[in-house]
Amino acid sequence: MGAVVRIPTPLRRVTNGADVVNVAGGTLSEVLNNLEKQYPGVKARIVDTTGELHRFVNIYVNTEDVRFMGGLETSIKEGDEVSIVPAVAGGAR
């Protein structure tokens, strides 16, 4: 089974419309690498060229922000929920 990865609307064109996918991996980095194998091109929208999370992408594992956990080395257990959440900016004056 692996982790349940929730895909935000902007990335669903890369995942053929899938909003939830099951992905194996013992760390968040492994999950993202396996997600990339299933859906080529998705990882570049999540991780920058240095291998770090894009500033405008937040990832949560079971409601906890990975930036306050182990980052890309955050441990992932069977059945964990990984949510990819693009940051929202803007507004009216």
Descriptive account of the structure:
By secondary structure, the protein is of the alpha+beta class. The protein has a single domain, classed as Ubiquitin-like (UB roll) (Roll). The protein has one helix and five strands; from the N terminus they run E-E-H-E-E-E. Strands 2-1-5-3-4 form a five-stranded mixed beta sheet, covered by helices on one side. The protein is globular and about 45 Å long.
Please provide a brief summary of the model.
This protein is of the alpha+beta class and 93 residues long. It has one helix spanning 28-38; strands at residues 3-6, 20-23, 57-61, 64-65, 81-86. Strand 3 and strand 4 (64-65) form a beta hairpin.
Beta-strand level of the residues, as a percent range? 15-25%
In percent, how helical is the residue content?
A: 10-25%
Compute the number of structural domains: 1
CATH superfamily caption: Beta-grasp domain
Major sheet size, sense and barrel closure: 5 strands, mixed
**General shape:** globular
Features:
Ubiquitin-like (UB roll); 93 residues; alpha+beta; globular
